[in-house]
Specification:
Radius of gyration: 18 Å
Order of helices and strands: EEEH
Structural class: alpha+beta
Strand content: 35-45%
Amino acid sequence: MADKTETEPHPNREMLPVSNAGSANAPMLYFEDAPTFGHMNGIIQVTLEAVRLYSEPPGVKRERVVVAHMRMNIPAARSLRAALDGALLIAAPSESHAKN
């Protein structure tokens, strides 16, 4: 089954115009874990990691590497959490597709 690519607007949010002028240069982040997080002086901190594979005799070595250090204020963290919750809800199998 193909992945859903649906998007939904954030509930209760005023839609403001967004410039796409910088979107071509915006980084694309891929990560596999968010192992560390914290809070200091009103700033939420989250570290994102991915696994890197490379050849090293006699085989392949796996190495966890930090790919981003996220920093955000509390309203931004709540917005990110709402976006992730919404995306996970869209990705969840519907009851009609659930196995019995």
